[in-house]
Amino acid sequence: MTERKGMIQVFLGEGHVETSAAIGTAIRAAGYGLKVHIVFFGSASAEDITRSGTLNRLPGVVVDLVDSSDKFSLLDSDSTFLNAGGENFDVVVFDQVLSRGEQRISGERILELLKVDHGKTEIILTGNYANEKVIGVADLVTGCECEKC
């Protein structure tokens, strides 16, 4: 039997529909006993979610908020991309890291990180725009659309 490889998923959309999809995936993974790391790249709703502590109360879930003034030290090295505090994760969500407007991390750096051997770790990136190279390395790209907002 072949060992499962972690997929790279991209959820794209306007508003927070892609965030909802990623959080739903993360909660489902936690429900199955997997370790989940969610990194919110600064937005008001991310602050609200983090402050409320709802996600942090779920067993196996770690939440970090990286605001736009931060130097994104979490992503400075390949090892911190998949590790936090020495703990390996099964699912890592980088919410709103992909953006058409303010670029939170360069597209080149995102590609470098995605090419790191992440073993069985599932990587989920969300935002409103992904360039063709990011789409090319992703295993799954989902366009999320709000039908009535």
TrEMBL record:
One of its GO terms (molecular function) is corrinoid adenosyltransferase activity. Pfam families: CobA_CobO_BtuR (PF02572). The keyword Electron transport does not apply. It comes from the Bacteria. GO terms for biological process: cobalamin biosynthetic process. The keyword Transferase applies. Keywords: Transferase. It is an enzyme of class 2 (transferase). Its EC number is 2.5.1.17. This is ATP:corrinoid adenosyltransferase. It comes from Dehalogenimonas alkenigignens.
